[in-house]
Amino acid sequence: MKQSEEVIIVGSGPAGLTAALYSARANLSPLLIEGVPAGGQLMLTTMVENWPGYRDGIMGPELIDTLRAQAERFGSRIVNGQVQRFDLSETPYIVETSDARYETRALIISTGASARLLGLPSEQVLMGHGVSTCATCDGYFFKEKRIAVVGGGDSAMEEALFLTKFASQVTVVHRRDILRASKIMQDKALAHPRITFEWNSIVEDIRDPDKGVVTGIVVRDTKTKVSKELSVDGVFVAIGHTPNTELLTGQLDLDSHGYIQTNTGARTSQSGVFACGDVQDPVYRQAVTAAGSGCMAAIDAERYLEGLPQAAAGKGSEIRSAG
Ligand code: NAP
């Protein structure tokens, strides 16, 4: 059965939930399709210390719960489901999940980004058996174990620092000799007595798929080209993220890394389709910037709908007054 909607929002991180909040306050009664994992990357985070207004920080899942309740309070309808197909070739746009088919006059895409992987066959075999992309989820299983964290950005430093709560030793394996992470995160990690660094090193292999557990990693020095094995019990891959845009290839303009291209606010190359959050942001990628762009997407969608011939009267007054 087909369900007709005014606005559909896909994705339930801070961008999607903020878009839902603003669209709901514009009386658009948005339908938000959560996606998997519901709540996005903040559900995998512990303390968020840089969300304005929480002086002492707030836990990621609690922040998502609060945003969700706030969006629902104004009439957002949130449904569980994963989109399997978009058809943006003509309006109304079609959005299909495994158990529903929707058509919508405006679409806001906030599908976020997913953890990038090294691409090793051994990584695939051992994922969930000693290889992980989420210290918050799996760190607990590594009490008094030796762990390697791959990457040199804020995520890698955050994972490494978090894992020191459990691990006896954390080794950060980074492909260069300069960290990409922010100065404060670098300083914390570099000063930590249980964190060591393997500089200019790439992970060539993870041992031992035959045993079904992680027993070590083979790292190659990019300068000397010499490989060596390090004994570790777990590997946390923290090398960034890929935007979740596979279903949109060929339907919207994407940049060379697959991020949705937006201009003048949250507008995409397709009129009536808007994007917000990490799916269109390769630069800032913060919860607060995602939320800000969600607000922009809702306002842009509301103004787009108002401009359509059949737009319902009276919608959107609250958005403009909330300005
Ligand atoms: P990122 O900044 O893109 O860093 C990715 C890291 O992984 C880089 O050091 C990169 O090396 C390395 N890398 C990428 N592909 C690799 C590969 N195939 N093999 C080996 N290493 C590879 O990603 P991120 O750390 O996930 O951070 C993303 C954004 O979120 C950033 O804006 C960051 O500030 C933010 N963030 C903030 C916090 C916080 O404030 N608490 C926490 C997490 C993330 P190169 O350096 O050589 O490119």
What's the CATH topology name of the largest domain?
Answer: FAD/NAD(P)-binding domain
Give the name of the CATH superfamily of the largest domain: FAD/NAD(P)-binding domain
CATH architecture of the largest domain: 3-Layer(bba) Sandwich
Cα-atom radius of gyration = 22 Å
Largest sheet: 7 strands, mixed
Number of helices: 8
> Which structural class matches the secondary elements?
alpha/beta
What does this structure look like?
The structure is a single chain. The protein has 323 residues and is an alpha/beta fold. The chain has 2 domains: 2-114 and 241-321, 3-Layer(bba) Sandwich (FAD/NAD(P)-binding domain); 117-237, FAD/NAD(P)-binding domain (3-Layer(bba) Sandwich). It contains 8 helices and 19 strands. It is elongated. The two termini are 37 Å apart. Mean pLDDT is 93; it is low at 311-323. It binds NADP nicotinamide-adenine-dinucleotide phosphate.
List the helices and strands and how they pair.
Blueprint: E1 2-10, H1 14-25, E2 31-33, E3 47-48, E4 58-59, H2 60-73, E5 77-79, E6 83-87, E7 93-97, E8 101-109, E9 113-115, H3 121-126, E10 131-132, H4 135-138, E11 146-150, H5 154-163, E12 169-173, H6 183-191, E13 195-198, E14 201-207, E15 216-221, E16 227-230, E17 234-237, E18 241-243, E19 273-275, H7 287-307, H8 317-322
Parallel strand pairs: 1-2, 1-8, 2-5, 8-19, 10-17, 11-12, 11-17, 12-13
Antiparallel strand pairs: 3-4, 6-7, 7-8, 9-18, 14-15, 15-16
Helix pairs in contact: 1-2, 1-7, 5-6
This protein binds NADP nicotinamide-adenine-dinucleotide phosphate (NAP).
NADP nicotinamide-adenine-dinucleotide phosphate (NAP) binds at residues 50, 118, 150-156, 158, 175-176, 180, 182, 202, 239-241, 285.
